[in-house]
Amino acid sequence: MARRKHMEPDRLIAAAEIVLGVLRSLGGGLSPQPVGILHSPTRPPILNEFSDDEIDEACAFLRRLGVVSIS
Is omega for the bond preceding 34 within 30 degrees of 0, making it cis? Predict the structure, then answer.
């Protein structure tokens, strides 16, 4: 597995907050696979300030916290 570039904690928290907000606005579900939604062609514009890697890292962070689950 390729090692990702270090993400600053403040940036990670900001991305995680945006990801949670987007997921909630899409119907409140935080499962099963938020990354697929966030990388779709209809990706919400608010996510454009973050790279795909940052979105992936924010989703992984939320999974580690138990906020987002993969079923």
Answer: no
Residue type, 8: E
Q: Quick one: tokens of 16?
A: 């995680």
Nearest C-alpha neighbor of 9 from the set 37, 17, 49, 31? 17
Q: The pTM is what?
A: 0.76
Q: Which of 12, 23, 14 is nearest to 57 (CA)?
A: 12
Confidence at 32, pLDDT banded by 50, 70, 90 = very low
Cβ distance 12 to 61 under 8 Å?
A: yes
Task: Check residue 50 and give its pLDDT.
Answer: 92
